[in-house]
Amino acid sequence: MGPFDRFTDARKLSDSTVLDADVCIIGTGAAGITIARELAGGPLKVVMLETGGLNYDAAIAELGEIEIIGRDYPGGASRLRYLGGSTNHWGGQCAPLDTLDFEDRPWLPHSEWPITYQDLHPYYVRAQGVIELGEYDYNVDRVLAGSDFRQMGFTGNAVRTSLSRYHRQRFGLRYASDLNAASNIDVYLYATVMSFHRGEASDAASHVTVSTLAGNTFTVNATRFVLATGGIENPRLLLDSNGEQEAGFGNSNGLVGRFFMEHIGYANGIVVPKHFDPGYDIYFDEQRYTDETGEDLRIRTHITLSPEATKVLRIPKFRAELRRYSELRFAMKHLRDVNFDFGDVWSVMQEPGAIWDYLVNGEKPEDVGAFILGNYCEQVPNPDSRIVLSSITNALGQNIAAMEWRLTPLDSETIRIAHRVIAHEIGRSGFGRFRYDMTTDEDGILDGAYGGYHHMGTTRMSEDPKTGVVDANCRMHEVPNVYVAGSSVFPSAGWPNPTLTIVALATRLADHLKQEVDRDGAR
Amino acid sequence: MAPDNSRRGPSRRGALAWLAGAAAVLSGRPALAAVSPEARLARLAGRSPRAARAIGNAYLGALTGPRPTPAALVEAVASRIDLAPDAVAGLGHDALAGRIEAAIRQDFERYDTAVVDGWVLSSTEARLCALVALR
To answer: Would you say the pTM of this structure is higher than 0.95?
Structure first.
């Protein structure tokens, strides 16, 4: 049996085709594939619908184009529409959210999750295995112990070193054979869902209509649906499923598409350490790492503000990836007149007597190093930052998504506060000196900010239907048999990249579906 | 990681002490007494007078109001290290350097800093650089 021989090209289905499933999973990215694998070999008949094929196809990719109507969003949607979804080009960076991220943070309205870190912890451990990230250990002291890498010596409680693990798991390539081998799973390629539909006598979804670029259309009836197409397409499809409800499917509270969040990327701020240690390479690039699992891993550290510090400062979470000095010019957008350079700052930090050291002791001068901060700030949840339907249509006649990315004054303030704290902690701990590179124009502070292609928040999770789209089990408040998977359910983002949490939530959702079926039956 | 401080030859501080002793013998006066408080403090502004001067000039240029005199800078720094200005010259190099280092850290802790060309410097180190610039 070949790896894909049970997959079906939906372009070859006749118009009258009706497929029946217990669970219809829309999307084959990290979330969709994770859920399908959890259901593989079980009693539920699963139909997976993938808009693309096995490889990149420009015509399919065009279906996912977006219109930018808010602040500039460099790079466009960046989604990939084929088996494995955007995991086909992701960077593999993973870290879990921390306890505070899930809690009520009064200084950050709308940020509370209806679940806790403890609820998600066992699923983080399982997600770690799915992505093949080695042991579930993000304690930087333990992980770096015995290595040649060194933590920067911040001695206070505000600034710390945090760790990410990396494995560019290509979910399609890695797990296609699992899907193919599961007799209860049928994968349909080139199948673009056009709309959800309700049954006549209930709030539940009865079926989805599906089209292909070959011109055929078919129907999938299912008892349960899982929408797992990413943080832009999830709300777009719900909004575009407006044949029966003008506001969109399950959107009577008008929240679908709102609270679009990103990690706000902004290269800014220079650090000159007093002593530049080669062990700091762990901050600049992913470094090979092995643990008892023997998996092919990379790790990298970042500068973050501690949860306690963000609590005291009343700001969102903050992390900075460090870039070498060679990239410095890229960062210095707001360069002022320079009277001296970072080498001069370094000199002032040193003890007098360099000439003596060189002449008498033969000590070579130290390498003077500097690095810049690639800041990634948690975006403040903002209802006015949103995905809506564009008036532009794609080749299938769907209204494409329009992105209205909006930031708030607290987003600008966060980066300024974070840099102020970092600058003073770096000095206080004797580590080095920091240079602000921020414009003095209040309105221009985040000009040029970019996202991390982390599309979050657009079908947010909440206890109360009035404040979110899905409940704590990722079930739509208004549609009892439609679940949403992916980062669109995040009420707030923390600093970590989202994929580990996406996979953890997907694993948890799969468990929930299995328990629900055990309790209520498949139909 | 701390730098490797092991040296093959005599330390520079030892050498400075030896030179001071030799100067005292040759001149018949205590060597330290010959050095002004401004000079003592200015020597603590890092390893490159040129760099300290550049930073000091930028600091002074960014100040609003009248430019401080060397005496005022000495007084400000001395006060930060709990010394009378006259007592600065009487303190040994290591003791003085230790007090300055502690003051710099404390400045950062108290957010008593100066932003010079964007660089966040402790007020004490900025004043030391200014002393170099004014000499």
So the answer is: no
